[in-house]
Design a protein that fits this description.
alpha/beta; binds uridine-5'-diphosphate; seven-stranded parallel sheet; Rossmann fold; two-stranded parallel ribbon; binds nicotinamide-adenine-dinucleotide; 9 helices; 38% helix
Length: 312
């Protein structure tokens, strides 16, 4: 079995490469290293079943593979808003190129979609049949709308060309191998706490998110790829919901930090609430998350402690 992981040198992609190699697959990791790093896949470079291709998914490519995991796309608001035109090209042209390849070589293809397709949701918790509440012209739109178009492309290639597709809507995921400069909330708070710097809560901190540890996500993604007769979309997320203020206090407590919480302006269009409804994943995949926030945070803290030590 040959698998292609686009975005394979990123946070999620590199864990996926690990897991597929453990399963005995040949793995091609394709990445342009925008937010990914060689460090994430360094330990795989000597593995004979692993190949690294430096390539940008906005350009066509043809590889003979059985499974494609299309995960290439910056995911942190800081990074996806840095070059918004490139972000939307990555989602849209990336999906077109990967779907074209899947059609040609008859591969099964999975799209890493996101809870962001629900935008600032008016329905809570979010179920797969909710169409979402997304601003088409805001600063998050390059990511949200790009991912929505990618889902549309997947469905159209499926209906029109019979491409074997899978759509997973991933909710906020965290863990080892997030970049120190990633900018998302869990890594920001942990790094700030470990350095005894101010914890930067945006807005009042009463907005909510539901955080999933990386190992749970990988389990769900693999189950989805290998199940037949179910294309999704399916929510993959942890349904334990926390305010951002609660997250900040938990991180301070677990790191024994001297950090103080400070309040900064809330970025535009920041969703006020987010929590997945996961019955479909339970029924179709026999999957549900196992790792509680506190357990996952302890593992992530240990990772970032090492990173900070190595960097200093
Ligand atoms: P990440 O930024 O760590 O990884 C993204 C990877 O894609 C990086 O290695 C980057 O270099 C690569 N990449 C970006 N643009 C590319 C391009 N044009 N061509 C080739 N490679 C490119 O982010 P992540 O958290 O690992 O996210 C991976 C995927 O999962 C993304 O598609 C993201 O939208 C999706 N996702 C993640 C989360 C989350 O909470 N982590 C939630 C929902 C969806
Ligand atoms: N956030 C915060 N401080 C930070 C980074 C993020 O308060 O240093 C907030 C952000 O405003 C949002 C939530 O944490 O409400 C999650 O942000 P993140 O960038 O991790 O992901 P999002 O779910 O918004 O894409």
């Amino acid at each position: 079995m040959r698998s292609l992981v686009t975005g394979g040198a990123g946070f999620i992609g590199s864990h996926l490469c690990d897991r597929l190699l453990e399963k005995g697959h040949d793995v091609i990791c394709l990445d342009n290293f925008f937010t990914g790093s060689k460090q994430n896949i360094m330990h795989l470079l000597d593995n004979h079943n692993f190949e690294l291709v430096r390539h940008d998914v906005t350009e066509p490519i043809l590889l003979e593979v059985d499974h494609i995991y299309n995960f290439a796309c910056p995911a942190s608001p800081v990074h996806y808003q840095y070059n918004p035109v490139k972000t939307i090209k990555t989602s849209v042209m990336g999906a077109i190129n990967m779907l074209g390849m899947a059609k040609r070589v008859k591969a099964r293809i999975m799209q890493a979609s996101t809870s962001e397709v629900y935008g600032d949701p008016a329905v809570h918790p979010q179920k797969e049949d909710y169409w979402g509440n997304v601003n088409t012209i805001g600063i998050r739109s390059c990511y949200d709308e790009g991912k929505r178009v990618a889902e549309t492309l997947m469905m159209d290639y499926h209906r029109q060309n019979n491409v074997d597709i899978k759509i997973v809507r991933i909710f906020n995921t965290y863990g080892p191998r997030m970049a120190v400069n990633d900018g998302r909330v869990v890594s920001n708070f942990i790094i700030q706490a470990l350095r005894n710097e101010d914890i930067t809560v945006y807005g009042k901190g009463n907005q909510t998110r539901s955080f999933m540890y990386i190992d749970d996500l990988i389990e769900g993604v693999i189950k989805m790829m290998f199940v037949d007769d179910f294309i999704g979309p399916v929510n993959v997320g942890n349904s334990d919901e926390f305010t951002i203020y609660e997250l900040a206090t938990k991180v301070i407590e677990l790191t024994n930090s001297k950090s103080k919480i400070i309040y900064l302006p809330l970025p535009k269009d920041d969703p006020t609430q987010r929590k997945p409804f996961i019955r479909l994943a339970k029924e179709k995949l026999g999957w549900q998350p196992k790792i509680k926030l506190e357990q996952g945070l302890v593992k992530a803290i240990a990772y970032f402690e090492e990173q900070i030590k190595e960097g200093s």
